Amino acid sequence: MEKIKMTTPLVEMDGDEMTRILWKMIKDELLLPFVDLKTEYYDLGLKYRNETNDQVTLDSAEATKKYGVAVKCATITPNAARMPEYNLKEMWKSPNGTIRAILDGTVFRAPIIVKGIEPYVKNWTKPITIARHAYGDVYKGVEMKIPAAGKAELVYTNEAGEETRELIHNFETPGIIQGMHNINESIESFARSCFNFALDTKQDLWFATKDTISKKYDHTFKDIFNDIFEAEYKEKFDAAGIEYFYTLIDDAVARVMRSEGGYIWACKNYDGDVMSDMVATAFGS
Fold this sequence. Notes:
The protein has about 280 residues and is of the alpha/beta class. It has helices at about 20-30, 45-50, 55-65, 80-85, 95-105, 185-200, 215-240, 250-260, 270-280; strands spanning about 5, 10-15, 35, 40-45, 70, 105-110, 130-135, 140-145, 150-155, 165-170, 175-180, 205-210, 245-250, 265. Strands 6-7-14-12-13 form a five-stranded mixed beta sheet, sandwiched between helices. A three-stranded parallel beta sheet has the order 4-2-5, with helices on both faces. It is about 40% helix and about 25% strand. It has three domains: about 1-105; about 105-140 and about 180-285, Isopropylmalate Dehydrogenase (3-Layer(aba) Sandwich); about 140-180, no CATH class. The protein contains nine helices and 14 strands. It is globular. The chain starts with a strand and ends with a helix.
């Protein structure tokens, strides 16, 4: 049998521990006998990421932008316990977070319903697709330990050198702080990806944040989604017979548990991480 020819290579991102073995088995048994496989290889194992000061992760992401498709194996995001185990130079950040930030992508994760594996939520009869914004938030967050009493502020300095300050907290004892960011351009890309995916799959789209508490950060997501929908997608959704609606994430969780599935649920980066794991577990995957 003649092998399938590839004209453009795909980016191959090798991973850690058991995934290296599984990926090799997949290539040897399922791909190489049938496909003239062409790949550009990057070793994202923690040991090599450490040797290259994580440059290999950046290089693999740029290669993905060049070729347009990649296969990535699971990788370790080190915690404190991994530092001596791998003799790490520093506690390297999540490769997934780094790659997603460079690609400004959206993660769509849908469980596969398999006969004989019943979901834990019995009324879920259709897959629930989690659309996850893949830029910023906790994955690009900056953290600081506060050693003693003092004042912590957010400071923005514009190009003219003018400052805007917002008090975070007046500390009387030691504590911790975290700063997160996002950019409108990436949120707009996320919104359009979600709307287009909903149209392609003919599924309703939900979007949920906590804008009642986060009146600037989360509310910006809500406003951008609404503005783009009204200007570019409302008529298309009406013609396709599908719906877009926004709700608080608390309400979304309650609605999800009562639903039968069969829709797309869009979330911010970290929310999407948590919700996709919850949905996958509940479907038994």
